[in-house]
Amino acid sequence: MFSHVMVGSNDIARSKTFYDALFAVMGAGPAMVDPNGRLAYRHNGAAFMVTTPIDGEPATVANGGTIGFGLSGPEQVDAWHAAGVAHGGTAIESPPGSRQSPFGEIYLGYLRDPDGNKLCGGCRLANRA
């Protein structure tokens, strides 16, 4: 359904440090940097990109928006969350943990990246073998 997700940043170098750490936990490599200075991450057929806004205005966060990353299990969610906090992110909402949802039991951890974008790392517990 989606080809990519892109977020804005006011400091690409800071964002690269943060997102390189998150994607390393997920098993992906560091960002590729295009000629315009945008960061691009590819993993499991999806793309995630970071850019300074093309219109020259400051990057701002989406009110009510969350970008979710599918992870392999609670251990990877915990490591992803810890890597984010260690590299400039902010832990938000409850600590990583199990929650009930309309789709069954899930395990989630929430962060804000250094620019304030809301991220969620999670997995479905009912689908684990």
* Radius of gyration, in angstroms, nearest whole number: 15 Å
Cα end-to-end separation: 27 Å
Helix content: 10-25%
Total beta-strand segments:
8
CATH superfamily: 2,3-Dihydroxybiphenyl 1,2-Dioxygenase, domain 1
Number of discrete domains:
1
> How many helical elements?
2
What is the approximate shape? globular
Secondary-structure element sequence?
EHEEEEHEEE
CATH class, please? Alpha Beta
Largest sheet: 4 strands, mixed
- Ranges with pLDDT <50 over ≥5 residues? none
CATH topology: 2,3-Dihydroxybiphenyl 1,2-Dioxygenase, domain 1
- Strand arrangement in the largest pleated sheet: 1-4-3-2
Helix- and strand-based class?
A: alpha/beta
**What is the annotated CATH architecture?**
Roll
Report on this model:
This protein has 129 residues and is an alpha/beta fold. It has one domain (5-52, 66-124): 2,3-Dihydroxybiphenyl 1,2-Dioxygenase, domain 1. The chain contains two helices and eight strands. It has helices at 12-25, 74-86; strands at residues 5-8, 32-33, 39-43, 46-51, 67-70, 90-101, 104-112, 118-124. A four-stranded mixed β-sheet has the order 1-4-3-2, with helices on one face. A hairpin with a 5-residue loop joins strand 7 (104-112) and strand 8. Helix 1 (12-25) packs antiparallel against helix 2. The mean pLDDT is 92.
